[in-house]
Amino acid sequence: MSESQRVRDQRSLTTSMGAIWLVVGGALTLICAGLLFAMQWLSPAGVATTGLVIVLVLYAAMVVIRFAVSRRRLRLGLLATFTLLIVIIFLICAVVVTAMEWGAVSPS
Question: Transmembrane stretches, by residue range (predicted)?
């Protein structure tokens, strides 16, 4: 077993051209954007809309990174990071909206 067991040595971060990250990021963006769009009319006003805009901008940045960054390892690391950021932004916005709607947090 001569293969490295380190996470940063996996194929998707060393040999990929980045298309798979765009596919995964696109699928996550569709899901997250759809849910954030549906949450726009819930309180607090603007949280879901802001999250929606950020998620879309992050995916657009992924597309730019895929074609603009020539160093493969850097490009793949950035694409992986932006994919995670899409999910993190969605979760933060969804938790805030859900907490306010369920009354777990009182508005100030």
Answer: 20-42, 48-69, 76-100
Alpha carbon dihedral 45, 50, 51, 55, in 10-degree steps, equals 160
- For residue 59, what is the enclosing H or E element? helix 47-68
For 59-68, which contacts have Cβ atoms below 8 Å and span 24 or more sequence positions?
59/25, 59/26, 59/29, 59/86, 62/21, 62/22, 62/25, 63/22, 65/18, 66/18, 66/19, 66/21, 66/22
Tokens of 93: 């916005």
Which three-class secondary structure state does DSSP give residue 68?
A: helix
C-alpha closest to that of 83 among 52, 61, 67: 61
97 close to 48: Cβ distance less than 8 angstroms: yes
> Does 1 have pLDDT greater than 60?
no
